[in-house]
Amino acid sequence: MIVGTSLTPEFWEPLALLLVAATGVAFALAALFDSLALRRQNRRTHRPTIKPVKPTRAPRV
Questions:
Q1: Cα→Cα distances 28→16, 17, 61, Å
Q2: Distance CA 25, CA 19 (A)
Q3: Per-residue pLDDT tens over the stretch 12-60
Q4: How many Å apart are CA 25 and CA 21, to the nearest integer?
């Protein structure tokens, strides 16, 4: 015997709130990780690849 149940508004309201909250958290985390990835990428591109050499004095003759 299958018991038919109807989903009441008391069920849908918390489910909708949970869905909105989960979407907001996912959006915030995606934005955070994107900004961290961009910051890390920018750090790598701005570093000089070759260290500058200190000038040395020519020997006196």
A1: 18, 17, 68
A2: 10
A3: 999 999 999 999 999 999 999 999 999 988 877 666 667 777 778 877 8
A4: 6
Place of tokens 């869905």: 19
Structure tokens belonging to residue 36: 């961290």
Q: Which residue has the tokens 């909250």?
A: 21
Nearest-Å Rg of the Cα atoms of the chain is: 30
**Token reading at 23:** 């979407």
Q: 12 phi and psi, to 5 degrees?
A: -70, -35
Entry pTM = 0.58
Q: How far apart are CA 26 and CA 35, in angstroms?
A: 14
